[in-house]
Design brief:
Oligomer: single chain
InterPro entries: Glutathione_synthase (IPR005615), Glutathione_synthase_a-hlx (IPR014042), Glutathione_synthase_C_euk (IPR014709), Glutathione_synthase_N_euk (IPR014049), GSH-S_sub-bd_sf (IPR037013), GSH_synth_subst-bd (IPR004887), PreATP-grasp_dom_sf (IPR016185)
Pfam families: GSH_synth_ATP, GSH_synthase
Radius of gyration: 23 Å
Distance between the termini: 7 Å
Pathway: Sulfur metabolism; glutathione biosynthesis; glutathione from L-cysteine and L-glutamate: step 2/2
Number of helices: 16
Low-confidence stretches: none
Catalytic activity: gamma-L-glutamyl-L-cysteine + glycine + ATP = glutathione + ADP + phosphate + H(+)
Shape: globular
Bound molecules: adenosine-5'-diphosphate, magnesium ion
Structural class: alpha+beta
Largest sheet: 7 strands, antiparallel
EC number: 6.3.2.3
Helix content: 25-40%
Length: 530
């Protein structure tokens, strides 16, 4: 299999039926599931019905060299974005100019400036659970992959790590159990890499938990190694900030189960509204205390000190319907708990930062002095597609022209996360015409990456769809760092910095967006091609 094979192999009716039964039962018995959409199952008593997550029946071919390059770059990408987040003045310049045209960025940035002018920050460490998303780029005429190009870098609520690990296990099981036919001999232990995203993301959270307790209570001599036995008596816990009615709850639950079972760490899933009701700070150090209503037996109330606030919500305006929610975010940001991410780290993940870093001199500013890592700037830079500002700079004026003259080559992106926000190709001119010109600078214009198409089958709600698909490889990173006092880049102390597994998301090749939760794509795994 030296290039993309004719894929997937043809099956007899009996083989296909056996494969689908094996696939579905494995998914259901291993929690590779999501809550069904209300339109799919109108009533869901006690929220007890679930459905297999949308997953490909076969792993999709992915070039091994590019897979390995993306993974080996991840610790450097972690470092890059941790440094950006620590450089308050650099990030401040970008955020203040964006604030003029983007209300969401403005409100995030206002939390930072208010904190600086009032009581200041109280956390010492930050946690990043990042995901750098790539597509393989091909040339116009050739199918041959040219390299990987970064689609975006996520610094908040990077999801699907747990389900991605389970899809990798599922595809390996289908091979090992003989549900894939022996003719598909290029699917084997060597071409199906084990994906440890679940374990590694949980380890990142656990590491931050350990760092927090060691900092606030050095005499306790707390370590993760001894924690498992102490677990149930511990007065510390991790808070997952979640959305009400989350359909992808099991992806989050798996992280919780791993934290509880392997490390003995308690996890609390709370919405913004519950945070308002059940948490408070202790002055002068602003420890965040959580008083769970379920932990009151009529006489005694258990209280937990929150070590880490892990956001699986809060990344878009929809999570902040009113000032109450913004006040809650401020309240959490002000606390001593380690945030994953902080407001500054969230802002570092904006599309604007990605565009600015795609100018080599800016990348060099943060990564130019990487001792012992010759050529790291070039290697990272190689993964960047062309991205232009839409402001009134020279590059911005060029982009404005391109957007009208050659829109089919581009995607226009606002400063938003979570899918469904971008404007593609020929819709760009009309969209821009409908928007006041002052607002254009809130967008970036990015060259479209051309991923290779492969054939695969997707199982969604029990139905099979076959067709041409394209994949997007996400590489997770987990990083814990000590924040710089004065915001100088390079001042941060890295405590933990690891690549943390992968996600392959696959979508129909005619669909522009690829989000799984947004209903455009599905979870896949890689079969590596040499
Ligand atoms: P979001 O924050 O909403 O996830 P993304 O930048 O990841 O925004 O874009 C959403 C989707 O749009 C991606 O998953 C990908 O499928 C597609 N996309 C984004 N940028 C490009 C690009 N430059 N070339 C091709 N497809 C892209
Ligand atoms: Mg994305």
């Amino acid at each position: 299999m030296s290039s993309y094979p004719s894929y997937p192999p043809n099956l007899t009716a009996e083989q296909l039926s056996y494969l689908i039964t094996s696939f579905t039962d494995y998914s259901l018995s291993h929690g590779l599931i999501v809550r069904p959409a209300p339109t799919f199952i109108p009533t869901n008593p006690s929220n007890s019905l679930a459905t297999p997550a949308p997953v490909t029946l076969w792993p999709s071919p992915f070039p091994r060299t590019h897979f390995e390059e993306a993974r080996s770059l991840q610790p450097f990408c972690n470092l890059l974005y941790a440094r950006v987040a620590a450089d308050q003045s650099w990030l401040g310049d970008l955020s203040t100019s964006l604030s003029l045209v983007d209300d969401f960025i403005s409100k995030l940035w206002a939390i930072h400036t208010r904190l600086k002018s009032e009581n200041g920050y109280h956390h010492k460490y930050s946690l990043g659970l990042f995901r750098s998303d790539y597509m393989v780029h091909t040339s116009d005429s050739e199918f041959a992959p040219l390299g990987i190009r970064q689609v975006e870098f996520n610094t908040i609520a990077s999801s699907f790590g747990a389900l991605a690990s389970k899809v990798s296990d599922l595809h390996r099981y289908l091979w090992r159990s003989g549900a894939y036919p022996p003719t598909a001999d290029y699917i084997n232990d060597l071409s199906l890499p084990r994906n440890e995203a679940l374990e590694r993301l949980a380890e990142g959270l656990a590491k931050a938990h350990e760092v927090y307790i060691q900092d606030v209570s050095p005499d306790a001599k707390y370590t993760l190694e001894t924690a498992a036995s102490v677990g149930p008596n511990s007065s510390y816990g991790i808070m997952f900030v979640i959305q009400d009615g989350e359909r992808n709850a099991f992806d989050q639950r798996w992280l919780e189960y791993h934290l509880t079972q392997k490390y003995g760490i308690r996890v609390f899933r709370v919405t913004f509204e519950e945070i308002r009701k059940y948490t408070h700070h202790v002055r002068p150090n602003y420890e965040l205390l959580f008083v769970p209503p379920h932990a009151f037996d009529g006489r005694k109330q258990q209280v937990y000190e929150i070590s880490v606030v892990y956001y699986r919500a809060g990344y878009g305006p929809g999570d902040y319907p009113g000032q109450e929610e913004w006040n809650t975010r401020y309240f959490l940001e002000e606390s001593r708990a380690i945030k994953c991410p902080t407001i500054l780290t969230q802002l570092a993940g904006s599309k604007k930062v990605q565009q600015v870093l795609a100018e080599k001199k800016n990348l060099e500013k943060f990564m130019g002095n990487e001792r012992g890592e010759e050529g790291i700037v070039e290697r990272i830079f190689e993964t960047f597609a062309a991205i232009y500002p839409m402001d009134e700079s020279e590059a911005g004026l060029k982009a404005r022209k391109l957007a009208f003259e050659e829109p089919h080559r581009f995607v226009l992106k606002p400063q938003r996360e979570g899918g469904g926000n971008n404007i593609y190709k020929d819709k760009i001119p009309e969209f821009l015409r409908g928007l006041e010109e002052e607002k254009w600078q809130g967008y970036i214009l990015m060259e479209l990456i051309r991923p290779p198409e492969v054939e695969n089958l997707v199982m969604r709600n029990g139905e099979m769809m076959q067709g041409k698909v394209v994949g997007e490889l996400g590489v997770y990173g987990a990083v814990v760092w000590k924040d710089a006092e004065d915001g100088e880049p390079g001042d941060i102390d890295i405590v933990y910095n690891e690549e943390a597994g992968v996600l392959l998301r696959t979508k129909g090749s005619s669909s522009e967006e690829g989000g799984v939760a947004a209903g455009f794509g599905c979870v896949d795994s890689c079969v590596l091609v040499d």
